């Protein structure tokens, strides 16, 4: 999915799989709400990645939203082509209703694969 994305929108992968130590460290830092082994970053291969637009500018939040919309569209296309069987969930819209006003936890670099209902 990000192999396709990076051809059109330069981006950088910050994190893929996380070990028990790494997961519990980011949990203690408040960067994740989940402890090992409950995060999708803990499966092998990882079902979650943290990817940010490159060059990285953490203050340019709008760019993260723009990027996520771009990735969502690619994910939708790859699902339509049956390249990917799961749905993409983004850390800025956990319930996937496209509303940005009903989140209690924002994790804008986070993308994960979830089973479809
Ligand atoms: Zn993540």
Protein described:
With 117 residues, the protein is of the alpha+beta class. It has one domain (2-114): 2-Layer Sandwich (Muramoyl-pentapeptide Carboxypeptidase, domain 2). 28% of the residues lie in helices and 17% in strands. The protein is built from three helices and four strands. It has a four-stranded antiparallel β-sheet with strand order 1-2-4-3, covered by helices on one side. The longest helix is centred in the middle third of the chain and has 20 residues, at 61-80. The protein starts with a helix and ends with a strand. The model has no long low-confidence stretch (mean pLDDT 95). Bound molecules: zinc ion. Residues 41, 48, 50, 107, 110 line the site of zinc ion (ZN).
* Overall tally of structural domains: 1
Number of strands: 4
Helix content: 25-40%
Element string (H = helix, E = strand): HEHEHEE
As a percent range, the share of strand residues is 15-25%
The oligomerization state is single chain
> Under the CATH scheme, which architecture would be assigned?
2-Layer Sandwich
Q: Looking at CATH, which topology would you report? A: Muramoyl-pentapeptide Carboxypeptidase, domain 2
Tell me, rounded to a whole number, the average pLDDT: 95
User: End-to-end distance, in Å?
Assistant: 21 Å
Contiguous runs where pLDDT drops below 50 for at least 5 residues? none
């Amino acid at each position: 999915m990000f192999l396709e994305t990076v051809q059109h929108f330069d981006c950088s992968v910050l994190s893929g799989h996380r070990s028990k130590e790494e997961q519990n460290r980011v949990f203690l830092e408040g960067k994740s709400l989940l402890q090992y082994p409950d995060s999708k970053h803990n499966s092998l291969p990882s079902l979650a990645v943290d990817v940010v637009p490159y060059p990285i500018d953490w203050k340019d939040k709008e760019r993260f939203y723009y990027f996520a919309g771009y990735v969502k569209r690619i994910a939708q296309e790859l699902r339509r082509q049956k390249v990917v069987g799961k749905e993409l969930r983004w850390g800025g819209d956990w319930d996937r209703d496209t509303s940005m006003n009903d989140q209690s936890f924002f994790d804008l670099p986070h993308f994960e694969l979830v089973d479809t209902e």
